[in-house]
Design brief:
Layout: E1 8-11, E2 14-24, E3 28-35, E4 38-45, H1 51-63, E5 75-78, E6 84-88, E7 96-97, H2 98-102, H3 111-130, E8 133-134, E9 143-145, E10 152-154, E11 161-162, H4 178-182, H5 196-212, H6 230-239, H7 260-266, H8 271-286, H9 295-308, E12 309-311, E13 318-320, E14 344-347, E15 350-353, E16 359-361, H10 362-365, E17 375-381, E18 389-393, E19 399-402, E20 408-411, E21 416-418, E22 424-428, E23 431-435
Antiparallel strand pairs: 1-2, 2-3, 3-4, 4-6, 5-6, 7-9, 8-11, 9-10, 12-13, 14-15, 14-23, 16-17, 17-18, 18-21, 19-20, 19-22, 22-23
Helix pairs in contact: 3-5, 3-9, 5-8
Length: 436
Amino acid sequence: MKFKKNDTITHEGKTISILDFLGEGGQGEVYLVEMDGQKYALKIYKDEVSSDFRYNLKNNIKKGSPADEFLWPKVLLDFDDGDLGYIMDLRPSNYVSFVSYLTGKNTFDTKAIMLKWCITLCNAFKKLHEQGYSYQDLNDGSFFFDPHTGDLLICDNDNVTADKKNLGILGKMRYMAPEIVRGDKIRGGGVQLPDVHSDRFSLAIILFMALCLGNPFEGERLKNYDIVDEDAEFELFGKDPVFVYHKTDKSNRPIRGYHSAVLRRWAYIPLYVKEAFHRTFVDGLNDRENERTTPLEWIKLLSKYRDELIACGNCGYEYIVGYSEKKHYENCPSCNAATKDFCSLSVGRNTVALDLGKMIYTTHVDKYSSEYLVPIGKVIASKRNPSLWGIKLALNTEVEIKDNTGKVKVVEKDGIIPIVRNLKIKFNENTIGEIK
């Protein structure tokens, strides 16, 4: 351990106090410190780092975080003895690890909250890639979530680097793209290293695990191995990966009694989300640049999934309405109770099931917006008469509504739109919605 409690460090005239030792990983030790009256985390690398790594970390700090969700390095500490470290914000106590979700220790309060987390994750990586970075080491240990809100934090950002450049970290098995596992040769010499395209593959694995609680390449073929060692992992995830729900190759289906969560959850995922997984995990094996679902494509698909969710009035189970599915649910998939009556808001290409608590987002009323996570309305019930529902607005402008008799009324920017069949809503000059 490099520091002990009550040690102090002087950096650019500021005193940094060591308050506690938080833990260590493969690369370094992490301490709880105080600077300028605020508490932070300090990571010190155990071994000497390369000049490229040092420059990259310094440059990332200078450029700043691409999104609020990244626990981004804030201050570089370059010690006289050659040691290197950096200060970052602490992870708040209300966040729990994604690993704890996969093991069943923690869960999201609702499926809608879980989908919000997935959309936030995709949005964070969209911003990361847009700024010329690739993460290069997506794995289950990198992510945290607030179970009640679906808020996200992303850690281990010191290996993030400019796309097409690598500092020696290839990733973690079970999350790496196959070409990285294999070390494919590339034109001009050398081997394929992590980049934006491998990030997209790894992101899809994280999303599959969030939605299905299993790995998309672990199925019947596990039975071929007495123990899943490095050689077995090379075959399963590198040499010959087979998606568990490959449309034609059924050799690696989830194992009944062992992959129960995957079998149960996959059945109720929307077809358009299934197709995106299949595209990435089947077509994307050979065409890494064109057939791997992008973060923006995931955002749109998962937002549509979120829009379609309703909760069973009997048991509370959340399932999709199935506007674009081949079959619609007449009974709850969990308790078999009859599907409840509900209205939908149709705005442009969007259809939102108006269930209690459902959010209306900026992108629903502005086709040019990229704010998939900024709500402008919420479905609520009247306190006086719970059978009466409405959309509580949070807009900057008033809206105009027209009922089926042709009567027009103006609703204030923070007012409530009654949920009434055939009600037309003029959000702006270009956007008119209808409750059906």
